[in-house]
Amino acid sequence: MHYRLKRKVREVKIEIRGDNRMNREKEILDLAAQAGNVLLENGAEIFRVEETMNRISQYYGIKNSDFFVMSSGIFLTAEDNGGQMYAKVKHIPINAVHLDRIAAVNQLSREIEEGQHTVEEAGTHLEKIAAMKGKSDITRILFSGLGAGCFCYLSGGTLWDGLAAFAAGLLLYCFIIWTEKREKEISRIVIHITGGFLATFFSVVFFLLGFGTNLSSIVIGSIMPLLPGVSFTNSIRDLANRDYIAGSIRMIDALLVCFGIALGVGLMYILYHKATGGMPI
User: SS3 for 135?
Assistant: First the structure.
């Protein structure tokens, strides 16, 4: 009787240790998935997401794990020494690029490898990174105008053309921020078509008012804040790393944005010619 009781206690202890180990492994894998989530939703490349997740899981002792990352989702599976399986699927829609959050997660993963954080501390840091505030609205509007003016000048515009593009870029980004603050979400295609239309409209207005002499340069500069330069570059990097599905999806998304902008610009030119009887601009 005494022997059976001791054996039962030993089995219970082993079972508890096994449960604790499995719970610990789940915490580590959830941490890796959370890091991948933050990276992917902020525009990181596929190889960067997979590398970061592997770094975190391997440092904390997870050996038998597999991560499959696509442009809009993360698939995670793992097996412990007892043969128990753990799986997780996370859908992540394509979103805007935030390089500061990507850089922060990269730095955190390297600090984890250096032994600076426990699992709990790393999770707290990730939550802070995910909640990082972006630039203020005023800063974004000003740099949108600055970028538009500089690109206008680089495309062959004069100083006055650059000032017209600067003003058009300011007004354009006021519209972009307004769409972000709406309770009801607007389709990205509609936003970019409307953005291209408004950028051209503001450029034409400033041109007709005598601000600038080269309308093409003004329009080119004013639409620059809308162009998905980072997303397009990342799609090429994904393709170069043989992540063909993710790279193709991101490239199609970037090309659709460009198509929407071009459609908006074309609509404005057509409406202007219709309204003025074909008066040249």
Answer: coil
The span from the CA of 144 to the CA of 99, in Å, is 17
**84 token code pair:** 């128990």
Q: Which residue type, as a one-letter code, is found at position 238?
A: D
List the chain pLDDT tens, one digit each, 281 residues: 544 544 443 443 334 344 555 677 788 888 888 888 888 888 888 888 888 888 888 888 777 778 888 877 888 887 766 667 777 788 877 777 788 888 899 898 888 888 888 888 888 888 888 888 877 889 888 998 999 999 999 888 888 999 999 999 999 999 998 988 887 878 888 999 999 999 999 999 998 888 878 888 999 999 999 988 888 888 888 888 888 888 888 888 889 999 999 999 999 988 888 877 655 55
- How many angstroms separate the Cα of 2 from the Cα of each of 6, 14, 116, 250? 6, 19, 47, 66
Q: Over 101-126, what HEC string results?
A: HHHHHHHHHHHHHCCCCCHHHHHHHH
CB atoms within 10 A of CB 146: 16
Q: How far apart are CA 226 and CA 212, in angstroms?
A: 22
Nearest CA to 165 out of 193, 204, 135, 136 is that of: 204
Strand pairing category for 65-70 and 85-91: unpaired
Residue 184 DSSP class: S
Q: Which of 66, 96, 272 is closest to 179 using CA atoms?
A: 96
65-70 sheet: strands from edge to edge? 65-70, 73-79, 85-91
